[in-house]
Amino acid sequence: MTTLPLRGRRREIASLLSEKPRTLYETAKAMGKPSGAIYRIVHRMVDDGVLDADPNPPTRGTLFSLSDVYRERLHDGLSDDQATGVLVPNQRVVLVSDLTPAQLYGVIEHTSLAACIGWLVELEAGSTFLLGLHLDVTMLQAHRLAVALERSGGDVKGGRIGEILAGDALRRAAATMDELTTVT
Fold first, then answer.
1. How far is the C-alpha of 84 from the C-alpha of 143, rounded, in Å?
2. 33-51: pLDDT as tens digits
3. What is the separation of C-alpha 173 from the centre of its chain, rounded to a whole number of angstroms?
4. What is the per-residue pLDDT for 143?
5. With helix as H, strand as E and coil as C, how does the chain read?
């Protein structure tokens, strides 16, 4: 069976519905959006076999859940769309310190939070981690992850990647700085 990619709002909806069935209204509320903003996407996801609807066809009050095939795909991480450790301009990142691996894994065992994370790097032995979020993660998703990490005892700092300089570009920029700082 061919499965469709889970990116953007589709990934956000799938991750929320993987934890428990929700109505359209409950799903939209969890995303911080009006239900009309996700109505078509959710119904398309049902038509595509990504979501199950009870009853089907969906009516008001229908409970939506992630289908078994996509639940497995989401848990296996097959929806990854970014190479591990690669930084991209404007990508959201989270630096978390003072958190044990057990505390970290306690947070990311929740699929809706784990689905935000593209990759993770350990910076200090078991206490500081850099998380690169998927490129399509919304501000609300990033904030939910940060709050969960803070509630688990972590010191959390978030931000976005600015300009990235390769080695040659960095050396050229440094040479220019020498010229600017030399007093004649």
1. 22
2. 888 988 999 999 899 888 9
3. 33
4. 92
5. CCCCCCCHHHHHHHHHHHHCCECHHHHHHHHCCCHHHCHHHHHHHHHCCCEEEECCCCCCCCEEEECHHHHHHHHHCCCCCCCCCCCCCCCEEEEEECCCHHHHHHHHCCHHHHCCEEEEEEEECCCEEEEEECCCCCHHHHHHHHHHHHHCCCEEEEEECCCCCCHHHHHHHHHHHHHHHCCC
Phi, psi of 134 (to 5 degrees): -55, 150
Gap between the Cα atoms of 102 and 162, Å rounded: 31
Give the integer Cα–Cα distance in Å for 128 and 25.
Answer: 37
Shortest CA distance to 129 belongs to which of 148, 155, 111, 147?
Answer: 155
* Nearest by Cα to 93 from 162, 165, 158, 163: 158
Q: Do the Cβ atoms of 117 and 129 come closer than 8 Å?
A: no
User: How many whole angstroms separate alpha carbon 32 and alpha carbon 167?
Assistant: 41
Structure tokens at 77: 């991480």
pTM above 0.70, yes or no: no
| Angle CA 159–163–167, to nearest 5 | 125
